[in-house]
Amino acid sequence: MSVKIRPYLMMNGNGKEAVQYYEKTLDADVLELITYGDMPDPPSADLNGLVAHAKLSLAGSEILLSDSPSTMPVQQGNQVTICISTNDVEKSKKFYDALQPEGQVKMPFQKTSFSPGYGSLTDKFGVTFLIDTEVDSMH
To answer: What is the pLDDT of residues 15-34, one digit of tens each?
Structure first.
């Protein structure tokens, strides 16, 4: 089983600009860039051009990034979260369940169009985690 821990940046509608900025200023390679419009089940048409998921490679590490849907505005200072990715749904669920007590669920752990097991929560210390399962590959 594989586990990766990566910083996850939440943007307020300027995700494409941020990707281009980090690509230029940090010499990052864009490994993935998916807009909400590219998704099989886009949440709403007004999000179509916004970044649903981006993965940048930088000096052997990865940074993940997306625009937050308007229903979940990002407050400055809360833009960076920790993404824990595994290749095992049960392990992902175990991490999610372990972090949940005394915390606040942002998105229940569930199957999505992009992951067989995904959820988001803020733990009892105020740290926000995205728990993700990548079964086809750990890229």
So the answer is: 999 999 999 988 999 999 99
